[in-house]
Design goal:
Elements lengths: L2 E7 L5 H18 L6 E7 L2 H5 L3 E4 L4 H10 L3 H10 L4 E4 L1 H6 E5 L12 E6 L9 E6 L11 E6 L3 E5 L8 H4 L4 E3 L8 H6 L5 E6 L1 H8 L12 E7 L2 E4 L10 H22 L1
Parallel strand pairs: 1-2, 1-3, 3-4, 4-13, 5-6
Antiparallel strand pairs: 5-10, 6-9, 7-8, 11-12, 12-13
This protein binds glutamine.
């Protein structure tokens, strides 16, 4: 396989940290797999021309309102929507990035936030409230493989996925009726390959157990009956979102996992194009 270019949206927030961990992950992948000929290039994305070069994209944590505002001013908002929803290239959003990838976000004033969309979910921004601005919790992440040690997940004014939305053609109109909720505009996939890259259903990849959330909240009331816990990692086809910030640790396991997903997605696209 030739070289794969991964962009990191670098308008605001923790983009530099993602670049560092992606490089570490790429180095460990090639060490693990001496036969792999994957070449990675990681570039910071601030312009539509830079985005155009990318095969996959990371949206970092930071402040989603600021990121969307700067994206609109840099003429990047529409190209970002095209990237995720028309070309359907692999994309990963962490924290603020997850908010931007949601089709619906609550606790948002109309006009205060533009969404890219791509994940059929509603996020609740700042779910843990003011009293628990940030905390760290050891997480079991089954998608990383069996018998992996817990992942040190850092949550900072984190959103959670509070609802998985039914997949539908067009925008999430029912969501638009809700108070303080914004939705993403709809876009058509460019072709059948792109349509298939985004599965119809959202998979829940990880939850924060009620018990951990309660401990972490240090006294803030969180419904203890929530056996299922809060949804903090989801995937819909090749679009992936996490509530927490793997880029703020030195643990590159999620970055390595995601690069393997990107490899797979790019390989499938090339195979289809050749067929
Ligand atoms: N709650 C923040 C927002 O609305 C996200 C925080 C983060 O990325 N750490 O953008």
């Amino acid at each position: 396989m030739g070289s794969t270019t991964v962009g990191i949206l670098a308008l605001q927030g923790a983009f530099y940290e993602h670049v560092q961990l992606l490089k570490k992950a790429a180095a460990s992948l090639s060490a693990d797999n001496a036969g792999s000929s994957s070449q990675w290039e990681f570039i910071e994305v601030r312009t539509p021309q830079e985005l155009e070069r990318c095969d996959a994209l990371v949206l970092p944590g930071g402040e989603s309102t600021t990121i969307s505002l700067v994206a609109a001013r840099s003429n990047l908002l529409e190209p970002l929507r095209d990237f995720v929803k028309v070309h359907r290239k692999p994309t990963w959003g962490t924290c603020a990035g997850l908010i931007l990838l949601a089709e619906s976000a609550n606790r948002t004033k109309k006009g205060g936030q533009e969404l890219i969309g791509g994940l059929d979910v509603r996020v609740n921004r700042n779910h843990f409230g003011r009293q628990t601005e940030s905390f760290e919790a050891p997480l079991d992440l089954p998608f990383l493989g069996e018998e992996q040690p817990p992942f040190p997940a850092v949550f900072i004014r984190a959103p959670i996925v509070e609802k998985i939305l039914p997949h539908q053609e067009g925008e999430q109109v029912a969501e638009a009726q809700r108070d303080e909720t914004v939705i993403a505009p709809s876009r058509q996939a460019e072709d059948e390959t792109a349509r298939q890259a985004m599965a119809d259903s959202v998979e829940v990849l990880a939850t924060l157990p009620g018990r951990a959330a309660k401990l972490a909240s240090q006294g803030t009331h969180i419904d203890a009956d929530k056996e299922t816990g809060d949804i903090i990692a989801v995937r819909q086809g090749n679009v992936f979102g996490t509530s927490f910030h793997p880029e703020l640790t030195d643990d590159a396991r999620i970055h390595s996992w995601w690069l393997r997903q990107v490899e797979e997605s790019v390989r499938r696209r090339h195979a289809k194009q050749r067929a």
